[in-house]
Amino acid sequence: xxxxxxxxxxxxxxxxxxxxxxxxxxxxxxxxxxxxxxxxxxxxxxxxxxxxxxxxxxxxxxxxxxxxxxxxxxxxxxxxxxxxxxxxxxxxxxxxxxxxxxxxxxxxxxxxxxxxxxxxxxxxxxxxxxxxxxxxxxxxxxxxxxxxxxxxxxxxxxxxxxxxxxxxxxxxxxxxxxxxxxxxxxxxxxxxxxxxxxxxxxxxxxxxxxxxxxxxxxxxxxxxxxxxxxxxxxxxxxxxxxxxxxxxxxxxx
Length: 253
Ligand code: G
Ligand code: G
Ligand code: MN
Ligand code: NA
Prior knowledge:
alpha/beta; TIM Barrel; eight-stranded mixed β-barrel; 10 strands; binds guanosine-5'-monophosphate; binds sodium ion
């Protein structure tokens, strides 16, 4: 309850901050970043989204929070454009189920894109399998409408859900994101290596990109590259960092 009271006030008090975790290609070039929400609580310090996102979902606070994340990410894209700095970077934003199911979700995104006047191709939305499966027809309709606007999609945590291959081919996806639980076991668990190879094969057959998350070691990265996955995200490259640090990392690279 204490946490809920704080969460209600957090937007108004500007206690949320966006962190950015770079996504790189095989050559190490930064192609974009995943946007990860952080709550800097005045007394408790940094609170993980693992703790407050479920509460935000339950209470419906995820709606204004999710909207703020989208808007802030688009403003960041605009800022990079203006600074002639990193103007080609794509930002991937996590979308929650309740947020995506809103009747006017497409209109909200459209309005934010208009207001911030960014190139919609710079925005990618991450959906999970459970969001998709919750209402496949609604998901497909919304994805098509958003794709019309120029927005792209990544399937987050891929391989952990109840993926049915039949719905996958119906979704206008741009990318599959291999879940870090599989990446973690590269070199130690043969079955996870097989799952990774299968996901990469599926992405190739669907004609879409595949990115691996949670890449922590050179060995994992090399295994992924050897198997045809050339996009990576993980601590090997960078932890999620605040905007200033992210800008500094870009400059160094
Ligand atoms: O960095 P990490 O601890 O950031 O994130 C923990 C979980 O919180 C992940 O599952 C991530 O997808 C989720 N998450 C992080 N930021 C957001 C956000 O802005 N919106 C939603 N819905 N989930 C987020
Ligand atoms: O559920 P989602 O995939 O959106 O969440 C991404 C989560 O993974 C975030 O909590 C982020 O901080 C975390 N993360 C990103 N890279 C790594 C990594 O290399 N190792 C570990 N253990 N976690 C990571
Ligand atoms: Mn994600
Ligand atoms: Na994920």
